[in-house]
Amino acid sequence: MNIKLALQRFLYVYLAISLVSCRTIPQEQPSTITVSTTTLPTSTSIPETSTVVPTETLLVSSPTPMLLGLQPSILVSGLIDHVQGTGNLDPIYTLESIPDVPTPGIYGIRLEDDAGQEIAFYSFDVGFSYDPSGFGGFVLVLPSNSNTTRIVLLKDGVEMDSRSASKNVPVVKVISPDGGENLSDSPVTISWSAVDADNDSLEYVVQYSVDGGKQWQTLTVGYPGTTLDLDLSFVSNTDIGLIRVFASDGFHTSQDQSDAVFSVTTEKEIYVDIFDDDGVYSGDQTIVLEGEAYTDMGNMTEFSLAWSSDIDGFLGEGEDLAINASELSEGTHVITLTAQNENDQTGTASITIQIYREFSSLSIDEEPLSFVAQQGDIKTLYQILSIWHLGGHSLTWSATADQSWIMLGSTNGSTPTEIAVSANPTGLSAGTYTGTITVTSNAEGVNTQTLSVTLQIKK
Predict the structure, then answer these.
(1) What CATH number should be reported for the domain whose range is 360-458?
(2) I need a surface site. Which of 202, 335, 370, 383 has the fewest CB within 10 A?
(3) Which has the closest alpha carbon to 189: 261, 237, 243, 247?
Protein backbone atom coordinates (compact mmCIF):
# COMPACT_ATOMS: atom_id res chain seq x y z
CA MET A 1 0.00 0.00 0.00
CA ASN A 2 1.48 3.37 -0.97
CA ILE A 3 2.11 6.08 1.62
CA LYS A 4 -0.80 8.35 0.69
CA LEU A 5 -3.28 5.48 0.60
CA ALA A 6 -1.99 4.32 3.98
CA LEU A 7 -2.65 7.74 5.47
CA GLN A 8 -6.13 7.89 3.95
CA ARG A 9 -6.91 4.49 5.40
CA PHE A 10 -5.75 5.71 8.83
CA LEU A 11 -7.94 8.83 8.58
CA TYR A 12 -11.05 6.89 7.55
CA VAL A 13 -10.76 4.30 10.29
CA TYR A 14 -10.05 7.05 12.85
CA LEU A 15 -13.16 8.96 11.84
CA ALA A 16 -15.20 5.80 11.55
CA ILE A 17 -14.42 4.62 15.07
CA SER A 18 -14.98 8.11 16.46
CA LEU A 19 -18.25 8.72 14.65
CA VAL A 20 -19.95 5.37 14.96
CA SER A 21 -20.00 5.18 18.77
CA CYS A 22 -21.70 8.57 19.09
CA ARG A 23 -24.94 7.46 17.50
CA THR A 24 -28.03 7.96 19.59
CA ILE A 25 -30.62 7.91 16.79
CA PRO A 26 -30.72 5.93 13.53
CA GLN A 27 -29.00 7.50 10.54
CA GLU A 28 -30.57 7.40 7.11
CA GLN A 29 -27.29 7.49 5.22
CA PRO A 30 -23.79 6.13 5.69
CA SER A 31 -21.08 8.54 6.65
CA THR A 32 -19.01 9.33 3.56
CA ILE A 33 -15.80 11.32 3.49
CA THR A 34 -13.66 12.46 0.57
CA VAL A 35 -9.93 13.02 0.82
CA SER A 36 -7.86 14.51 -1.99
CA THR A 37 -4.45 12.93 -2.36
CA THR A 38 -2.92 16.29 -3.24
CA THR A 39 -3.41 17.55 0.33
CA LEU A 40 -1.83 14.63 2.16
CA PRO A 41 1.57 14.55 3.86
CA THR A 42 4.28 12.46 2.27
CA SER A 43 4.92 10.20 5.22
CA THR A 44 2.57 8.20 7.42
CA SER A 45 4.68 5.84 9.46
CA ILE A 46 3.00 4.75 12.72
CA PRO A 47 5.72 3.53 15.12
CA GLU A 48 4.87 0.85 17.64
CA THR A 49 6.02 3.13 20.48
CA SER A 50 5.10 6.77 20.12
CA THR A 51 3.88 9.70 22.17
CA VAL A 52 0.28 10.46 21.33
CA VAL A 53 -0.51 14.16 20.94
CA PRO A 54 -4.12 14.38 19.69
CA THR A 55 -4.57 17.18 17.14
CA GLU A 56 -8.26 17.43 17.87
CA THR A 57 -10.58 16.02 20.49
CA LEU A 58 -13.20 13.66 19.15
CA LEU A 59 -15.62 12.71 21.88
CA VAL A 60 -17.73 9.67 21.13
CA SER A 61 -20.54 8.63 23.42
CA SER A 62 -21.20 5.03 24.28
CA PRO A 63 -24.75 4.97 25.65
CA THR A 64 -26.30 1.95 27.34
CA PRO A 65 -27.49 -0.29 24.48
CA MET A 66 -30.80 -1.19 26.15
CA LEU A 67 -31.74 2.48 26.54
CA LEU A 68 -31.19 3.41 22.92
CA GLY A 69 -31.99 0.17 21.14
CA LEU A 70 -28.41 -0.39 20.06
CA GLN A 71 -27.55 -3.81 18.72
CA PRO A 72 -24.47 -5.83 17.76
CA SER A 73 -23.16 -4.23 14.59
CA ILE A 74 -20.15 -4.35 12.31
CA LEU A 75 -18.25 -1.28 11.21
CA VAL A 76 -17.30 -1.65 7.54
CA SER A 77 -15.15 1.08 6.05
CA GLY A 78 -12.74 1.49 3.18
CA LEU A 79 -11.41 3.49 0.25
CA ILE A 80 -12.33 3.36 -3.41
CA ASP A 81 -10.14 4.69 -6.23
CA HIS A 82 -12.67 5.66 -8.87
CA VAL A 83 -9.94 6.29 -11.46
CA GLN A 84 -8.31 2.86 -11.19
CA GLY A 85 -11.57 1.12 -10.35
CA THR A 86 -10.10 -0.53 -7.25
CA GLY A 87 -11.25 -0.65 -3.64
CA ASN A 88 -9.96 -1.75 -0.24
CA LEU A 89 -11.73 -2.83 2.92
CA ASP A 90 -10.37 -1.69 6.28
CA PRO A 91 -10.24 -4.12 9.20
CA ILE A 92 -13.72 -4.90 10.45
CA TYR A 93 -14.78 -3.80 13.93
CA THR A 94 -17.66 -5.25 15.95
CA LEU A 95 -19.45 -2.95 18.40
CA GLU A 96 -22.82 -1.92 19.76
CA SER A 97 -24.44 0.70 17.53
CA ILE A 98 -27.47 1.61 15.44
CA PRO A 99 -27.17 0.21 11.90
CA ASP A 100 -27.22 2.39 8.80
CA VAL A 101 -29.85 2.49 6.09
CA PRO A 102 -27.44 3.16 3.21
CA THR A 103 -28.35 5.17 0.14
CA PRO A 104 -28.38 2.65 -2.75
CA GLY A 105 -25.67 2.93 -5.38
CA ILE A 106 -23.32 0.95 -7.60
CA TYR A 107 -21.29 -0.37 -4.66
CA GLY A 108 -22.27 -3.12 -2.27
CA ILE A 109 -21.30 -5.09 0.81
CA ARG A 110 -22.16 -8.79 0.83
CA LEU A 111 -22.10 -10.96 3.95
CA GLU A 112 -21.42 -14.65 3.30
CA ASP A 113 -21.51 -17.79 5.45
CA ASP A 114 -18.87 -20.52 5.52
CA ALA A 115 -20.49 -22.16 2.49
CA GLY A 116 -20.15 -18.97 0.45
CA GLN A 117 -23.89 -18.34 0.51
CA GLU A 118 -25.18 -14.81 0.76
CA ILE A 119 -26.57 -13.87 4.16
CA ALA A 120 -27.26 -10.21 3.41
CA PHE A 121 -26.45 -7.58 0.79
CA TYR A 122 -26.27 -3.81 1.31
CA SER A 123 -26.11 -1.43 -1.65
CA PHE A 124 -24.49 1.98 -1.09
CA ASP A 125 -23.08 5.00 -2.87
CA VAL A 126 -19.78 6.87 -2.45
CA GLY A 127 -19.07 10.54 -3.11
CA PHE A 128 -15.81 11.57 -4.76
CA SER A 129 -13.77 14.75 -4.68
CA TYR A 130 -13.38 17.07 -7.62
CA ASP A 131 -9.73 16.04 -7.74
CA PRO A 132 -9.69 13.32 -10.43
CA SER A 133 -6.93 11.49 -8.53
CA GLY A 134 -8.92 11.47 -5.27
CA PHE A 135 -10.26 8.53 -3.33
CA GLY A 136 -13.80 8.15 -2.02
CA GLY A 137 -14.21 6.79 1.47
CA PHE A 138 -17.17 5.04 3.04
CA VAL A 139 -18.20 4.13 6.57
CA LEU A 140 -21.13 1.75 7.04
CA VAL A 141 -22.61 0.38 10.25
CA LEU A 142 -24.42 -2.85 9.39
CA PRO A 143 -26.27 -5.45 11.48
CA SER A 144 -23.96 -8.17 12.74
CA ASN A 145 -24.74 -11.79 11.90
CA SER A 146 -22.93 -14.50 13.84
CA ASN A 147 -22.91 -16.78 10.78
CA THR A 148 -20.87 -14.33 8.70
CA THR A 149 -17.43 -15.65 7.78
CA ARG A 150 -16.65 -13.44 4.76
CA ILE A 151 -17.40 -9.82 3.91
CA VAL A 152 -17.10 -8.72 0.27
CA LEU A 153 -16.85 -5.25 -1.32
CA LEU A 154 -18.40 -5.10 -4.80
CA LYS A 155 -18.92 -2.65 -7.63
CA ASP A 156 -21.75 -3.45 -10.06
CA GLY A 157 -21.65 -7.00 -8.71
CA VAL A 158 -17.91 -7.45 -9.33
CA GLU A 159 -15.74 -8.25 -6.31
CA MET A 160 -13.19 -5.57 -5.40
CA ASP A 161 -11.92 -6.78 -2.01
CA SER A 162 -12.90 -9.07 0.83
CA ARG A 163 -12.21 -9.94 4.46
CA SER A 164 -12.44 -13.53 5.72
CA ALA A 165 -12.85 -14.73 9.29
CA SER A 166 -10.17 -16.82 10.91
CA LYS A 167 -11.13 -19.49 13.44
CA ASN A 168 -10.37 -17.64 16.65
CA VAL A 169 -11.15 -14.24 18.12
CA PRO A 170 -8.22 -12.25 19.55
CA VAL A 171 -8.06 -11.67 23.30
CA VAL A 172 -6.93 -8.30 24.67
CA LYS A 173 -6.28 -7.17 28.25
CA VAL A 174 -5.58 -3.62 29.46
CA ILE A 175 -2.53 -3.69 31.76
CA SER A 176 -2.03 -0.03 32.65
CA PRO A 177 -3.66 2.13 33.75
CA ASP A 178 -6.05 -0.47 35.12
CA GLY A 179 -7.58 1.41 38.04
CA GLY A 180 -6.55 3.33 41.13
CA GLU A 181 -3.61 5.18 39.58
CA ASN A 182 -3.03 8.92 39.93
CA LEU A 183 -1.38 10.04 36.70
CA SER A 184 0.38 13.39 36.84
CA ASP A 185 3.73 13.09 35.07
CA SER A 186 3.74 13.12 31.28
CA PRO A 187 4.05 11.10 29.15
CA VAL A 188 2.14 8.15 30.59
CA THR A 189 2.63 4.72 29.04
CA ILE A 190 -0.60 2.92 28.22
CA SER A 191 0.01 -0.81 27.91
CA TRP A 192 -2.03 -3.88 27.08
CA SER A 193 -1.51 -7.50 26.11
CA ALA A 194 -3.15 -9.42 23.29
CA VAL A 195 -3.01 -12.93 21.88
CA ASP A 196 -4.48 -14.52 18.77
CA ALA A 197 -4.57 -18.30 18.52
CA ASP A 198 -4.43 -18.07 14.71
CA ASN A 199 -1.28 -15.93 14.85
CA ASP A 200 -3.08 -13.23 12.88
CA SER A 201 -1.56 -9.76 12.85
CA LEU A 202 -3.45 -7.51 15.24
CA GLU A 203 -4.07 -3.80 15.24
CA TYR A 204 -5.61 -1.68 17.95
CA VAL A 205 -7.87 1.24 18.67
CA VAL A 206 -7.10 3.04 21.94
CA GLN A 207 -9.64 5.34 23.61
CA TYR A 208 -9.72 7.50 26.74
CA SER A 209 -12.74 8.47 28.83
CA VAL A 210 -12.93 11.26 31.41
CA ASP A 211 -16.46 10.47 32.60
CA GLY A 212 -16.36 6.82 33.58
CA GLY A 213 -17.11 5.50 30.11
CA LYS A 214 -20.02 7.68 29.00
CA GLN A 215 -17.91 9.32 26.31
CA TRP A 216 -14.67 8.21 24.67
CA GLN A 217 -11.88 10.15 23.01
CA THR A 218 -10.11 8.18 20.28
CA LEU A 219 -6.35 8.40 20.77
CA THR A 220 -5.19 6.23 17.88
CA VAL A 221 -6.45 3.65 15.36
CA GLY A 222 -4.74 0.99 13.32
CA TYR A 223 -1.97 0.93 15.93
CA PRO A 224 0.39 -2.07 15.68
CA GLY A 225 2.05 -2.09 19.13
CA THR A 226 0.96 -2.87 22.68
CA THR A 227 2.31 0.26 24.40
CA LEU A 228 1.40 3.85 23.71
CA ASP A 229 2.86 6.98 25.34
CA LEU A 230 0.21 9.62 26.02
CA ASP A 231 1.03 13.31 26.51
CA LEU A 232 -1.30 14.25 29.38
CA SER A 233 -1.20 17.95 28.54
CA PHE A 234 -3.48 17.19 25.59
CA VAL A 235 -6.23 15.37 27.50
CA SER A 236 -8.62 16.51 30.22
CA ASN A 237 -8.02 15.96 33.90
CA THR A 238 -10.41 13.57 35.60
CA ASP A 239 -10.90 11.46 38.71
CA ILE A 240 -12.96 8.82 36.86
CA GLY A 241 -10.75 8.06 33.88
CA LEU A 242 -10.77 4.85 31.86
CA ILE A 243 -8.74 3.39 28.99
CA ARG A 244 -10.37 1.12 26.42
CA VAL A 245 -8.56 -0.96 23.78
CA PHE A 246 -10.12 -2.68 20.75
CA ALA A 247 -8.12 -5.47 19.08
CA SER A 248 -8.88 -6.50 15.50
CA ASP A 249 -7.44 -9.35 13.46
CA GLY A 250 -9.03 -7.83 10.36
CA PHE A 251 -12.39 -9.52 10.92
CA HIS A 252 -12.92 -10.39 14.58
CA THR A 253 -12.88 -7.74 17.31
CA SER A 254 -12.41 -7.95 21.05
CA GLN A 255 -12.11 -5.20 23.62
CA ASP A 256 -11.12 -4.55 27.20
CA GLN A 257 -11.03 -1.51 29.45
CA SER A 258 -9.52 -0.52 32.77
CA ASP A 259 -10.92 -2.62 35.61
CA ALA A 260 -11.52 0.53 37.67
CA VAL A 261 -11.25 4.28 37.27
CA PHE A 262 -8.03 6.25 37.65
CA SER A 263 -7.28 9.96 38.03
CA VAL A 264 -5.36 12.38 35.81
CA THR A 265 -4.09 15.56 37.48
CA THR A 266 -1.72 17.62 35.38
CA GLU A 267 -1.28 21.35 35.13
CA LYS A 268 -2.42 22.62 31.75
CA GLU A 269 -0.86 25.78 30.37
CA ILE A 270 -3.62 28.30 29.73
CA TYR A 271 -3.30 30.55 26.71
CA VAL A 272 -5.26 33.81 26.57
CA ASP A 273 -5.79 35.95 23.48
CA ILE A 274 -7.26 39.46 23.30
CA PHE A 275 -8.49 40.28 19.81
CA ASP A 276 -8.39 44.06 20.25
CA ASP A 277 -5.32 46.17 19.54
CA ASP A 278 -4.06 48.99 21.72
CA GLY A 279 -6.39 51.93 21.12
CA VAL A 280 -7.28 55.51 21.96
CA TYR A 281 -10.78 56.39 23.21
CA SER A 282 -12.47 59.53 24.46
CA GLY A 283 -15.82 61.12 25.17
CA ASP A 284 -18.59 58.54 25.34
CA GLN A 285 -17.10 56.11 22.83
CA THR A 286 -17.97 52.43 23.30
CA ILE A 287 -14.96 50.21 23.94
CA VAL A 288 -15.60 46.60 22.85
CA LEU A 289 -13.22 44.05 24.37
CA GLU A 290 -13.08 40.51 22.99
CA GLY A 291 -10.92 37.58 24.02
CA GLU A 292 -10.71 33.84 24.58
CA ALA A 293 -8.80 31.22 26.54
CA TYR A 294 -7.69 27.73 25.57
CA THR A 295 -5.16 25.01 26.36
CA ASP A 296 -3.15 22.66 24.18
CA MET A 297 -6.36 20.64 23.93
CA GLY A 298 -8.12 23.52 22.19
CA ASN A 299 -11.07 25.31 23.77
CA MET A 300 -12.78 22.25 25.26
CA THR A 301 -12.02 23.38 28.84
CA GLU A 302 -14.43 25.63 30.71
CA PHE A 303 -12.95 28.93 31.91
CA SER A 304 -14.12 31.89 33.94
CA LEU A 305 -12.98 35.08 32.21
CA ALA A 306 -12.55 38.43 33.99
CA TRP A 307 -11.53 41.83 32.59
CA SER A 308 -9.68 44.38 34.72
CA SER A 309 -7.86 47.72 34.51
CA ASP A 310 -4.71 48.58 36.42
CA ILE A 311 -6.34 51.94 37.22
CA ASP A 312 -10.03 51.17 37.74
CA GLY A 313 -9.87 47.51 38.81
CA PHE A 314 -12.50 44.91 37.90
CA LEU A 315 -14.45 45.76 34.72
CA GLY A 316 -16.59 42.72 33.94
CA GLU A 317 -16.74 39.07 32.93
CA GLY A 318 -17.07 36.99 29.78
CA GLU A 319 -15.45 36.67 26.36
CA ASP A 320 -17.02 39.95 25.22
CA LEU A 321 -17.32 43.17 27.21
CA ALA A 322 -18.58 46.60 26.13
CA ILE A 323 -17.59 49.64 28.22
CA ASN A 324 -18.29 53.34 27.74
CA ALA A 325 -15.08 55.39 27.71
CA SER A 326 -16.71 57.88 30.08
CA GLU A 327 -16.81 55.15 32.77
CA LEU A 328 -13.01 54.84 32.81
CA SER A 329 -10.55 57.22 34.39
CA GLU A 330 -8.56 59.43 32.06
CA GLY A 331 -5.09 58.07 31.43
CA THR A 332 -3.20 55.02 30.19
CA HIS A 333 -4.88 51.74 31.15
CA VAL A 334 -3.41 48.26 31.05
CA ILE A 335 -6.45 46.08 30.34
CA THR A 336 -5.99 42.45 31.41
CA LEU A 337 -8.09 39.39 30.62
CA THR A 338 -7.63 36.65 33.24
CA ALA A 339 -8.79 33.08 32.58
CA GLN A 340 -9.24 30.58 35.40
CA ASN A 341 -10.11 26.89 35.07
CA GLU A 342 -11.82 24.52 37.49
CA ASN A 343 -8.47 23.76 39.15
CA ASP A 344 -7.83 27.46 39.87
CA GLN A 345 -5.05 27.63 37.31
CA THR A 346 -4.86 30.98 35.53
CA GLY A 347 -3.56 32.61 32.38
CA THR A 348 -3.56 36.26 31.34
CA ALA A 349 -3.17 38.59 28.38
CA SER A 350 -3.07 42.40 28.32
CA ILE A 351 -3.40 45.40 26.03
CA THR A 352 -2.87 49.12 26.64
CA ILE A 353 -5.50 51.75 25.87
CA GLN A 354 -5.59 55.53 26.22
CA ILE A 355 -8.63 57.29 27.68
CA TYR A 356 -9.24 61.02 27.13
CA ARG A 357 -12.17 63.15 28.20
CA GLU A 358 -12.38 65.06 24.90
CA PHE A 359 -12.42 63.96 21.29
CA SER A 360 -9.51 64.80 19.04
CA SER A 361 -9.69 65.47 15.32
CA LEU A 362 -7.01 65.49 12.66
CA SER A 363 -6.03 68.76 11.02
CA ILE A 364 -3.50 69.63 8.28
CA ASP A 365 -2.60 72.70 6.21
CA GLU A 366 -5.46 73.60 3.92
CA GLU A 367 -3.39 75.47 1.34
CA PRO A 368 -2.58 73.24 -1.67
CA LEU A 369 1.08 72.64 -2.46
CA SER A 370 2.42 73.85 -5.81
CA PHE A 371 5.79 73.00 -7.37
CA VAL A 372 7.51 74.30 -10.52
CA ALA A 373 10.38 72.49 -12.25
CA GLN A 374 12.29 72.51 -15.51
CA GLN A 375 12.14 69.48 -17.74
CA GLY A 376 15.13 67.32 -16.83
CA ASP A 377 15.26 68.42 -13.18
CA ILE A 378 15.74 65.66 -10.61
CA LYS A 379 14.00 67.17 -7.59
CA THR A 380 12.27 70.36 -6.51
CA LEU A 381 12.83 72.26 -3.30
CA TYR A 382 10.75 70.92 -0.44
CA GLN A 383 7.74 72.56 1.20
CA ILE A 384 6.42 71.96 4.72
CA LEU A 385 3.14 70.19 5.49
CA SER A 386 1.97 70.68 9.08
CA ILE A 387 -0.09 67.94 10.78
CA TRP A 388 -1.70 68.50 14.19
CA HIS A 389 -4.66 67.58 16.34
CA LEU A 390 -7.67 69.55 17.53
CA GLY A 391 -8.83 68.33 20.92
CA GLY A 392 -7.57 66.68 24.05
CA HIS A 393 -4.81 64.33 22.94
CA SER A 394 -2.14 63.55 20.40
CA LEU A 395 -2.89 61.36 17.39
CA THR A 396 -0.93 58.82 15.41
CA TRP A 397 -1.07 59.34 11.66
CA SER A 398 0.06 57.91 8.33
CA ALA A 399 0.39 59.65 4.96
CA THR A 400 0.24 58.40 1.37
CA ALA A 401 0.44 60.01 -2.07
CA ASP A 402 -1.47 58.84 -5.13
CA GLN A 403 1.29 59.93 -7.56
CA SER A 404 4.81 58.51 -7.63
CA TRP A 405 6.34 61.95 -8.29
CA ILE A 406 5.13 63.24 -4.90
CA MET A 407 7.93 62.69 -2.38
CA LEU A 408 7.06 62.53 1.35
CA GLY A 409 9.80 63.10 3.91
CA SER A 410 7.91 60.94 6.43
CA THR A 411 4.93 58.63 6.09
CA ASN A 412 3.88 58.14 9.73
CA GLY A 413 4.25 59.64 13.17
CA SER A 414 2.34 61.44 15.91
CA THR A 415 0.88 64.92 16.18
CA PRO A 416 1.89 67.68 16.18
CA THR A 417 4.55 67.41 13.47
CA GLU A 418 5.79 68.77 10.17
CA ILE A 419 6.88 66.77 7.13
CA ALA A 420 8.84 67.82 4.06
CA VAL A 421 7.14 67.39 0.70
CA SER A 422 8.88 67.70 -2.66
CA ALA A 423 8.34 66.69 -6.28
CA ASN A 424 10.47 64.50 -8.54
CA PRO A 425 9.93 65.44 -12.22
CA THR A 426 12.35 62.80 -13.53
CA GLY A 427 11.01 61.21 -16.70
CA LEU A 428 7.98 63.49 -16.96
CA SER A 429 7.20 65.57 -20.03
CA ALA A 430 6.48 69.28 -19.91
CA GLY A 431 3.00 70.01 -18.61
CA THR A 432 0.92 70.28 -15.48
CA TYR A 433 0.40 67.32 -13.12
CA THR A 434 -1.90 66.99 -10.11
CA GLY A 435 -1.98 64.58 -7.22
CA THR A 436 -3.31 64.13 -3.69
CA ILE A 437 -1.74 63.52 -0.30
CA THR A 438 -4.02 61.62 2.13
CA VAL A 439 -3.36 61.70 5.87
CA THR A 440 -5.26 59.28 8.12
CA SER A 441 -5.22 59.01 11.91
CA ASN A 442 -6.75 57.30 14.92
CA ALA A 443 -8.88 60.36 15.73
CA GLU A 444 -12.33 59.81 17.20
CA GLY A 445 -13.63 62.81 15.29
CA VAL A 446 -12.37 63.76 11.82
CA ASN A 447 -9.68 61.18 11.09
CA THR A 448 -8.81 61.74 7.42
CA GLN A 449 -7.62 64.83 5.57
CA THR A 450 -6.50 65.34 1.96
CA LEU A 451 -4.33 67.96 0.28
CA SER A 452 -3.97 68.76 -3.43
CA VAL A 453 -0.50 68.91 -4.98
CA THR A 454 0.35 70.50 -8.36
CA LEU A 455 3.54 70.11 -10.37
CA GLN A 456 4.22 72.32 -13.39
CA ILE A 457 7.10 71.23 -15.64
CA LYS A 458 8.47 73.81 -18.06
CA LYS A 459 10.53 73.16 -21.17
Answers:
(1) 2.60.40.10
(2) 370
(3) 243
